[in-house]
UniProtKB/TrEMBL annotation, chain A:
Residues 7-70 form the V-ATPase proteolipid subunit C-like domain. It comes from Cohnella fermenti. Keywords: ATP synthesis, Cell membrane, CF(0), Hydrogen ion transport, Ion transport, Lipid-binding, Membrane, Transmembrane, Transmembrane helix, Transport. It is a multi-pass membrane protein. One of its GO terms (molecular function) is lipid binding. This is ATP synthase subunit c. NCBIfam families: ATP_synt_c, PRK06876.1. InterPro entries: ATP_synth_csu_bac/chlpt, ATP_synth_F0_csu, ATP_synth_F0_csu_DDCD_BS, ATP_synth_F0_csu_sf, ATPase_proteolipid_c-like_dom, F/V-ATP_Csub_sf.
Automatic annotation (TrEMBL), chain B:
This is ATP synthase subunit I. Keywords: Cell membrane, Membrane, Transmembrane, Transmembrane helix. InterPro entries: ATP_synth_I. The chain crosses the membrane at residues 12-30, 36-56, 77-95, 101-120. It is found in: Cell membrane. One of its GO terms (cellular component) is plasma membrane. It is a multi-pass membrane protein. Its main location: membrane. The keyword Membrane applies.
């Protein structure tokens, strides 16, 4: 049972972090591109990026804690 | 309109501090549930640290994009995941608090960010209606 818990934790956090990595990369690349094109829109772009990253990273943080729960069980 | 990152961060911090004060209240009123409220408070502090770190990184990113130089540090998820992990380890392994409560506390700040962002976006779309061609004024 213990090995299954470790396996589940690895899968949960690995896939969550993979999705977050791809999403963060897209968000930050577009933010840098937008700020470079129009520096006067920096505040709006930073705020939108902050909200987007908050949305993207909520899931892997939950998956991190779920991984802990699976490891403990 | 919420185009200002410090203003958004201040609102998120205010919501997190509200939940932190609720945790302190629960800690004081229900002593038998101290492991739950303690874990929740540590989770909220960890989530708030993640939000502050993310905002700091975004400001650094903006500075680097404007000045055209390469940013010194990365922007990935690893440092923020480590902050969440640190909060979880301190809460569960060191202080022996509840893990589910710590997880709940960790997602308070991202959820607050998400809700504030959605509210700001809906207000913005109400303030600037589209014309018949679907373009914003």
């Amino acid at each position: 049972m213990e090995i299954y818990g470790l396996l589940a934790a690895a899968i949960v956090f690995g896939l969550g972090a993979l999705g977050a990595g791809i999403g963060n990369g897209l968000i930050f690349s577009k933010t840098v591109e937008g700020i470079s094109r129009q520096p006067e829109l920096r505040g709006a772009l930073q705020t939108t990026a902050f909200i987007g990253v908050g949305l993207v990273e909520a899931l892997p943080i939950i998956s991190l804690v779920l991984a802990f729960i699976f490891m403990a069980s | 309109m919420m185009d200002d990152l410090p203003a958004l961060l201040k609102r998120v911090s205010r919501i997190a501090f509200f939940f932190l004060s609720m945790g302190c209240l629960g800690w004081a009123v229900w002593p038998e549930l101290r492991n739950v409220f303690g874990g929740f408070m540590i989770g909220v502090v960890g989530g708030l640290a993640i939000s502050w770190h993310l905002a700091w990184k975004l400001v650094q990113l903006g500075n680097a994009a404007i000045s055209g130089r390469k940013p010194r540090s990365g922007l990935g998820f690893l440092s923020r995941a480590c902050l969440g992990l640190l909060a979880g380890v301190i809460s569960v392994r060191v202080l022996d608090f509840n893990l589910a409560a710590t997880a709940t506390g960790l997602i308070v700040s991202p959820m607050a960010t998400l809700l504030l962002g959605l509210v700001a976006r809906s207000r913005r779309s109400d303030d600037h209606p589209t014309d018949e061609r679907g373009e914003k004024h």
